[in-house]
Design goal:
Elements lengths: L6 E5 L4 H10 L3 E5 L10 H8 L7 E6 L4 H11 L3 E4 L5 H5 L5 E7 L7 H9 L6 E6 L17 H5 L6 E3 L8 H8 L3 E4 L4 E3 L2 E2 L1 H17 L9
Parallel strand pairs: 1-2, 1-8, 2-3, 3-4, 4-5, 5-6, 6-7, 7-8
Antiparallel strand pairs: 9-10
Helix pairs in contact: 1-8, 2-3, 7-8
The protein binds ligand LARABZUK.
Organism: Candidimonas nitroreducens
Protein name: N-(5'-phosphoribosyl)anthranilate isomerase
Pathway: Amino-acid biosynthesis; L-tryptophan biosynthesis; L-tryptophan from chorismate: step 3/5
């Protein structure tokens, strides 16, 4: 059975032309960052305007870090993301409380997330999530371009009840195909690796990244179709 196509989310978009490039290159989702300390931060009006530039069949993911509930709700109401991404220390009840599909991010290498069993235990608390996103630990929470040791996902990969795995953290066109071959994630997520400057995406890097994902998918066609 063929390996299902790896989905791609491109995160941290701030310009309509980058959304157009991502969509025409085949990205499945674009990420809008609502973390005030981020260089990719969007205001509500800017996000509404960018949302209007997202074509049909491309999902919008709204990313938060420990945000007040009313800020998340305002984005849900006004930007209409298909998926929320919680990238901080949000507990399960908070994440589920919006009654909106969400993805919980885990920053691997942080205390408690530095062993495969610790990672699995943390992720299993979020069994209601639509997906689990695994990123590298960085003091600034995410979008750092840092990688993590993939063996930290060993217990998650062996666990039959796992949620779909989104691989993030330092991916780029030179590395993503090998990561797909090794891990076979449901989706990959990239930000820094397709940028020319923070928040400014490079059309060439986006296209190269999408080509490399297709190469990674092609390399696993004849193997066991199991994905995480
Ligand atoms: O992009 C940010 O500035 C950001 C800030 C706070 C939390 C998360 C953030 N970004 C997350 C992402 O862009 C991706 O989900 C992921 O971390 C991949 O980033 P990168 O390593 O830069 O490819």
């Amino acid at each position: 059975m063929p390996h299902p196509r790896t989905r791609v989310k491109i995160c941290g978009l701030t310009r309509p032309q980058d959304i157009a490039t991502a969509a025409s290159a085949g990205a499945d989702a674009v990420g809008f960052v609502f973390y005030p300390q981020s260089s990719r931060l969007l205001g509500l009006e800017q996000a509404r305007s960018l949302r209007a530039a997202v074509p049909a069949f491309v999902d919008v993911v709204a990313l938060f870090v420990n945000a007040p509930r009313d800020e998340v709700q305002a984005v849900i109401d006004q930007v209409r993301p298909g998926l929320l991404q919680f990238h901080g220390d949000e507990p399960p009840e908070y994440c589920a409380g919006f009654h909106h599909p969400y993805m919980r991010a885990f920053r691997l290498g942080a205390p408690g997330l530095d062993t495969p069993q610790g990672v699995l235990a943390a992720a299993q608390q979020h069994g209601a999530a639509a997906a689990w996103l695994f990123d590298s630990y960085s003091p600034g929470y995410g979008g750092s371009g840092k990688t993590f040791d993939l063996s930290l996902l060993d217990a998650v990969r062996r666990e039959p009840g796992s949620r779909p795995v989104v691989l993030a953290g330092g991916l780029n066109a030179a590395t993503v195909a090998a990561s797909i071959r090794d891990l076979r994630p449901y989706a990959v997520d990239v930000s820094s690796g397709v940028e020319s400057a923070p928040g400014i995406k490079s059309a060439e890097k986006i296209k190269a990244f999408m080509r490399a994902v297709a190469q990674g998918d092609g390399a696993v066609v004849d193997k066991d179709a199991q994905t995480v």
